[in-house]
Amino acid sequence: MIKQVFKSFPDNKPISGLCIVEDITKCPTGYNPISKTHDQDSDADLHMQSWKESVFIGRKISRYLCLSKTEGISDYIVVNINIINEKECPPDGYCLIPRTIDSDQKAWRKRQLCYKLTRKSQATFAITDIILLSRSKKAPDGFNLVGDLNGLTLCYKTSPQTPDNVPLPSLNYGLTPTPSTEHIPKSNGSLSSLPSLESSANALSHDYDRLMSLKPTRPAPKLPPTYSSSNYSTLNSYQGLEGIPFVLNQNISMENKSIFKDIPEIKIKTAEDLDLEYNYSFEQERQV
């Protein structure tokens, strides 16, 4: 019930794609066919096949207009529709639908439909609905009349869009602060004045002057001797080890034999000694 109520509401999303199918049951995914006329609820076939053609061909040839609001060229929407003759060239910027999307047959018989696409971010309006009329030659309220399309009257509905490149409205006030005194209420209800921007700027200037007048109380330490890492360098480089004597620690000198007393004596073993000491037959593992 809720879905039916939502379907009855007008959909103001812009149409993004149009196509023609021969078999209405083979409408592409994401497209909706216009199968009935808006005024008479009759068949919305755009081919206008006569009974003589049906007898000669042996089958009924039909053409149905399908529209989509999700498929088509990304970020482009339909903003205008026009009807031209079969051999007439479309206006600049308009697209044709030359063949059916399901059977790859010629789409139109006498008059053909062309439409114009515009990038969604630049469109100020878009076509949101298309209807076909079988008897009436006047567009219903809210629709624009396009013209006769092979015996049916084509109408479309537009809706305003908000392009991304619309300039923002100008402000009636400036953004530059003016030196003034603001008043805020205290907790007891009385007003107190805040210092103005000019006085705050003067206070910051005085603080900066005091910082610049500060001088160190002791002289800076002398730099260590310079060592250049390359004969071609033009700037002195420091490695962080300047001034540290490169001597061996006395605890690990060869003369101090007390550190070697805990080291066990290494005995030389032959291959036979190693086999006898580490040989293992794995008999218990094989018995399991």
UniProtKB/TrEMBL annotation:
UniProt keyword annotations, A-Z: Cytoplasm, Endosome, Membrane, Protein transport, SH3-binding, Transport
Region (Disordered): 166-196
GO terms, molecular function: SH3 domain binding
Any one Gene Ontology cellular component term annotated for this protein: ESCRT I complex
Recorded superkingdom: Eukaryota
Domain named MABP: residues: 12-160
Biased composition (Low complexity): 187-196
UMA domain segment(s): 241-288
Family: Belongs to the MVB12 family.
Bilayer topology term: Peripheral membrane protein
UniProt cross-references to Pfam families, sorted A to Z: DUF2464
Compartments reported by the entry: Cytoplasm; Late endosome membrane
Gene Ontology biological process terms, A to Z: endosome to lysosome transport via multivesicular body sorting pathway; protein transport; receptor catabolic process; regulation of epidermal growth factor receptor signaling pathway; viral budding; virus maturation
Signal sequence, renumbered to the chain: none
Role played: Component of the ESCRT-I complex, a regulator of vesicular trafficking process. Required for the sorting of endocytic ubiquitinated cargos into multivesicular bodies.
Record-given protein name: Multivesicular body subunit 12A
Principal location listed in the UniProt entry: cytoplasm
